[in-house]
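Technical note accompanying the year-one report. For the benefit of new consortium partners, we illustrate the data format agreed upon in the data management plan: each record pairs a sequence with a C-alpha cell string. No post-processing was applied to the example shown here.
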Amino acid sequence: MNKMLLLACLPALATAAERYSVTGLILSIDQPHRRLVASCSEIPGYMKAMVMPIPVREPKALEGLKPSMFVDFTLVVEKERSWAENVRVHEYENLAQEPMLVRRLQMLARLDKSNPPPALLAVGETVSDFTLTDQTGHRVGLSRFRGKVVGVTFIYTSCPLPDYCFRLSNNFGRLQKRFAGQMGRDLVLLSITFDPEHDQPEVLAKYASTWKADPNSWRFLTGTPAEVKAVCRLFGLNFWPDEGTLAHSLHTLVINRQGKLAANFEGNQFSAEQLGDFVETTLNDAR
C-alpha cells in the first residue's frame, strides 16, 4: 500500500517545481535584495519575452555579473515563488560573416607589432571624443551629445547579408520607433560605416532614407579611412576586404549620459527588444 501511495504522489511532486532554461540580458543588479533584472528571451509555452526581476537564493550567484552581460540560467517556478539558479555568463558564439576568416585575421592583427591594436575600451570607461561626417555632409563630434544616451553601431551599405549590417540597422529602426518621443532630445543613434571610400555622404543619405532616419537624431557617419579605422579600433570592430565584400565583426554600443561606455554588445544574437530594454534602463539611470 505504501508503495502504491508513493507512486501516486510522484506526478504531483514532479510538477511542484517547474524548471525552464532562459537566456537574458542583465539590465541591473540589486545585491542587497539578491536579485537581478533581465530582459529575458521567450520561454515557448510559458511566457513571452519580457523584462523580469529575478531573485537568487545565494549572494554568490551574482558575483562577477554586471549590467550588459548576457547570462544563461535555470528559472525555477513553484506555486508561490520563483528564482534563478545556475546563473552563468552566456558563451558568445562568433556569428560574424566568415567567422573563421575574421578570427584568423584578428590573430594576424595582434601579431603585427608595428601597428598593435589599442586596448579595448572597457564598460564604465569614458569614450574618447571623435569627429566624423554625417549623411548631410556636416562634421559631427561625439562630445556634442554629452547629456544624452548614444547608440552606436557599425555597418556598410553594400553588405549583402540580411543577418549582419541590415539586422543592426533594423535594430536601430526599431529603437527609433520605440523612443520616438525621446529621439534627438534624450537619445541619439550613430551608424558608422567602415567602408568610407564607397559610403560617402550622398550614399549614406540614400541608405538612411530606407529607415526614414531623421538626420537630427539618427546620423550615418563616414570620414577618411584613417578616421574611420581609429574609431573602429577603439571598440574592437575589425574588418577586411574579402573577394569583393568586407569580412567584419559586429558591435553595438550604448554610451550613457555621462559619456561612458555602458555596453559593447558583440555579434547579432540579441533582439531589438533586448537592446531597447537596455537603452530604456540607461535613459532612466540618473547616475
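Partners are asked to follow this layout when depositing records. The chain has six helices and 14 strands.
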